[in-house]
Write a structure and sequence with these properties.
Helices cover 26% and strands 49% of the residues. By secondary structure, it is an alpha+beta fold. Strand 3 and strand 4 form a beta hairpin. The model has no long low-confidence stretch (mean pLDDT 82).
């Protein structure tokens, strides 16, 4: 009986070793959009042109509205995607607003803790 339990424990430990070995060697994340501090104004001043624009709106039952604006800007072979997230109440007052532009880059690995 004890021998069976030891064999079972060995199998479990071996399985856990394999599981963690594969996850350590796996790519954590690959991304082709790199965050940037530039704004729409910066990009337009640098000669970027708006190539595409889209909005999405989500309305909740409580009257809160979430709006997502996505704009793609391009200059030669350089591309940026800017996203603006806006939260509005029932009277259309802005409750929250966030903005980020990302530059299209060769896929890169994101490091731990970034």
């Amino acid at each position: 009986m004890v021998r069976k339990e030891l064999m079972f424990i060995k199998k479990i430990l071996f399985f856990l070793f394999l599981l963690f070995s594969f996850s350590i060697n796996a790519e954590i994340s690959i991304d082709q959009w790199e965050d940037d501090t530039k704004t729409y104004k910066d990009l337009i001043d640098e000669g970027y042109e708006i190539k595409a624009y889209d909005t999405s709106t989500i309305k909740s039952d409580s009257g809160i509205m979430l709006i997502l604006f996505v704009t793609v800007l391009q200059k030669n072979n350089q591309v940026y995607e800017c996203q603006e997230y806006q939260t509005l109440d029932q009277s259309l007052q802005t409750l929250d607003l966030s903005f980020i532009c990302r530059k299209l880059v060769q896929p890169y690995n994101i490091g731990v803790g970034t």
